[in-house]
Design brief:
With 180 residues, the chain is α+β, with helices and mostly antiparallel strands. The protein is built from three helices and seven strands.
Length: 180
């Protein structure tokens, strides 16, 4: 059942991103839409059980890298995952280079001192996407259309012992704002 759903999602991504010849937008009239649904799903490039297909030997990390580097450079706007507000450059910098405060013991005086440490996000842990997609059913032509609205890179989080803690979506980027 999971494979069947994944197959329909993959087909929807492939077919829904194409516009039929001579049509504008999605190739349907809003008046012909019987129903519409927004979905939100996670796609992992490391899970062997995921049913997606590598096409033409392309690198799985290509889109992830394009999005992350575009957000860091400021060429792709990023939006808070929960609030949906646009992130400013300081918020983006804090996300990629978080600071921690640690206590360090001075070996000569045995005094505890506060030290601010600047970290760098481990981008190798960003191996998933959360995808927001709209689905439309054209009742007149009996066709399904899909439109990817936004993509969120997802970082896998581990504790200090290497145990899996969960997944952390970083931010949303609007699909239409990612330039080719």
């Amino acid at each position: 059942m999971k494979q069947l759903i994944a197959l329909f999602v993959l087909l929807g991504l492939l077919l829904g991103s194409c516009n039929p010849a001579g049509s504008a937008g999605h190739g349907f009239k809003k008046s012909d839409i019987a129903w519409a649904k927004q979905t939100n799903f996670k796609l992992s490039f490391e899970d062997d059980n995921e049913d997606y297909q590598r096409i033409g030997g392309h690198n799985d990390k290509g889109l992830i890298n394009k999005i992350i580097h575009g957000v860091q450079e400021g060429s792709i706007p990023a939006y808070d995952y929960y609030e949906k507000t646009k992130l400013n450059p300081e918020q983006i910098k804090a996300m990629f280079y978080p600071t921690d405060t640690i206590y360090v013991m001075d070996p000569e005086t045995y005094e505890e001192k506060v030290k601010v440490v600047k970290n760098e996000m481990d981008l190798t842990k960003v191996t998933k996407f959360r995808i927001k997609q709209d689905w439309y059913f054209d009742e007149k032509n009996i066709k399904m259309y899909s439109n990817i609205k936004a993509i969120a890179p997802v970082r896998t989080v581990y504790d200090d012992s290497g145990n899996y803690r969960g997944d952390l979506p970083l931010f949303w980027v609007m699909f239409e704002e990612i330039e080719a």
